[in-house]
Amino acid sequence: MASITAAEKQLILAFWCKVDVEALGGDTLTCMFIVFPWIRRLFSNLDDPLQPSLSLGTSPLRELLCNKLHVDPINFRLQGEVLITLLAADFGKELTPAYHHAFHKLVGVVAHALACRSH
């Protein structure tokens, strides 16, 4: 598993401060439901799947995804790829190859960390 360098972390943090996180989170989940419709069933037991108040990487999130919703680990990577695609759509040329590469590595690290707790 690749790790994120200090330079990549700085790129991610510098870019992330430009992002409307609430809007991007909702858009990412909505896009996931459209592009990968089978994912909607994972959220059938939540009152409002488009408004989860979850923090990425926290223990409660891992518990929810892995133990309550039984999310297939591949979906973590898919969601990360959708997030990067939406960043590219929103920011265009501002999302340079260096930023894209850093976010791609971050998605891989986060997906791996979440998948480690799966089933």
Low-confidence stretches: 49-57
CATH fold category name = Globin-like
Q: Briefly note the structural class of the backbone.
A: mainly alpha
Largest sheet: none
What is the level-2 CATH architecture name?
Orthogonal Bundle
What can you tell me about this protein's structure?
There is one protein chain. This protein has one domain: Globins (Globin-like, Orthogonal Bundle), CATH 1.10.490.10. The chain has 5 helices and no strands. The chain has helices at residues 6-16, 21-35, 59-68, 74-91, 97-115. It is globular, with a radius of gyration of 14 Å. α2 (21-35) crosses α4 (74-91). With 119 residues, the chain is an all-alpha fold.
Which key phrases capture this entry?
about 120 residues; mainly alpha
Topology, element by element:
Blueprint: H1 6-16, H2 21-35, H3 59-68, H4 74-91, H5 97-115
How would you summarize this macromolecular structure in one to three sentences?
This protein is mainly alpha-helical. The chain has helices at residues 6-16, 21-35, 59-68, 74-91, 97-115.
